């Protein structure tokens, strides 16, 4: 399949961040509202917007919790790193005639804060954050929005992500999905994925170099 556009999720697809997000969300929920839930439950829900995750655990004021979370998370962003092979992958994709973008569950403020440490992502020409559509992932709306506003062809657009929420969004948008196995939970089921990738460079086999 010759793809003309590749769209990426960010957390635990490009950046090894899901564990820090889960830990910080959990800590914020406990400190602000004394709402406790197992860390592994938080980790399983990473890929959805933070307010939705918090509401699922009974948080009544997710906006306040998220403000606390963002302050704590921002102070620890220096701990985040790209997954091995991601920077090399992007460098090689520069030499391929295709469009590259990111579609994330982060809102624009969160995206701008985090990508201060990751200029490769910040400088991506196509960026869709969760506040650009009424429904976030796992709805297909963010991908559909991205396709329409950037003149992409769904039949030649691939979405790469680490969670079933990313897969469901791609399926609803009727575009191919590649599971980023390097960031996915070990027991994640990707029955509707077009590709199961073990490492970032596997993606290069799907494009013409």
UniProtKB/TrEMBL annotation:
Pfam families (UniProt xref): HAD_2
Record organism: Lactiplantibacillus plajomi
Entry keyword Hydrolase: yes
Keyword annotations from UniProtKB, A to Z: Hydrolase
A single MF term (Gene Ontology): hydrolase activity
Presence of the UniProt keyword Hydrolase in the record: yes
E.C. number(s) listed in UniProt: 3.-.-.-
Top EC category: hydrolase
SUPFAM superfamilies (alphabetical): HAD-like (SSF56784)
Protein name in UniProt: HAD family hydrolase
Top-level taxon of the source organism: Bacteria
InterPro entries, alphabetized: HAD-like_hydrolase_sf, HAD-like_sf, HAD-SF_hydro_IA, HAD_2, HAD_sf, PGP-like_dom2
PANTHER family: PHOSPHOGLYCOLATE PHOSPHATASE
């Amino acid at each position: 399949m010759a793809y003309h556009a590749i769209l990426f999720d960010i957390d635990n697809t490009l950046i090894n961040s899901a564990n820090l997000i889960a830990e910080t969300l959990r800590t914020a929920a406990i400190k602000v509202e004394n709402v406790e839930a197992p860390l592994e439950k938080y980790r399983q829900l990473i890929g959805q917007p933070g307010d939705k995750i918090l509401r699922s655990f009974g948080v009544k004021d997710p906006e306040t919790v998220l403000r606390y979370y963002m302050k704590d998370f921002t102070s620890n962003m220096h701990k985040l790193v790209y997954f091995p092979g991601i920077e090399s992958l992007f460098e090689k994709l520069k030499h391929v005639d295709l469009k590259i973008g990111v579609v994330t569950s982060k809102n624009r403020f969160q995206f701008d804060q985090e990508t201060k440490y990751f200029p490769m992502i910040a400088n991506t020409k196509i960026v869709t954050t969760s506040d650009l559509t009424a429904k976030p992932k796992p709805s297909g709306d963010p991908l559909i929005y991205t396709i329409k506003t950037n003149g992409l062809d769904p039949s030649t657009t691939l979405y790469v992500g680490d969670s079933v929420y990313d897969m469901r969004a791609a399926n609803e948008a009727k575009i191919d999905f590649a599971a980023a196995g390097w960031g996915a939970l070990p027991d994640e089921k990707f029955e509707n994925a077009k590709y199961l990738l073990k490492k970032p460079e596997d993606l290069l086999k799907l494009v013409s170099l």
